[in-house]
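Predict structure. Input: Ubiquinone/menaquinone biosynthesis C-methylase UbiE, 252 residues.
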Amino acid sequence: MTFDVSGDDYDRFMGRYSRPLATRLADWLEVNEGQRATDVGCGPGALTEQLVARLGADRVRAIDPSASFVEACRERFPGADVRRGAAESLPYGDATCDVAAACLVVHFMSDPVAGLREMRRITRPGGWVGATVWDLAGNRAPMWPLWDAVAELQPDHPGEREFPGGTREGLVEILEGAALRDVESVELAVTVTHPTFEEWWEPYLHGVGPAGDAVAALGADGRERLEEALRRRLGDGPFDLTAVAHAARGRA
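Output follows.
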């Protein structure tokens, strides 16, 4: 699995869903003027964009392990403190921000509880620490049509259903394990209109994340069969797809 792709490639793959999701997450975490915020696992900057718009670049920190994403985020948001690093070892002092958030990141952390514990550490007492993960176990992520079709070709393929945090209970358990207080959760839904089948399908051919890996592993013949199955399901377009994420927050 890799996220060693350009920010533009990732945006075509997931940004069309992560941007509206980031808006709803920032609203739910009550991000408002005067605060300082940290975006953990920022990617090319879907949530960073929201934080900068609400707080100003000089009050926003963002961090990600991918060099290409860090470069893209720095270019897009000059003035923000964008660094390369991992959630499990954040390079910030204790209680140095008012809110810390991880949008679509927890399930890729090597140790999700340690990552959320670090987010709690850098957040002032009483500040929100929050995270979102697509409903992977319920097959309500944006990739659900692809995983359904992959299952037809490779019934034993694990997909993403077992990734950590992919259920409401699993995500809440991670936050509680990180000693956050007053943990609560909601579902956040995003609907995207895809104008053509090609616009939806092409980003899956760049090897982004588990879905990209699954497509690449099929080989040319398998990809052709997969595309045919998906075209039968989705049509030529336009079509709407709705994805649902679990969001959880707790007090530092």
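The mean pLDDT is 94.
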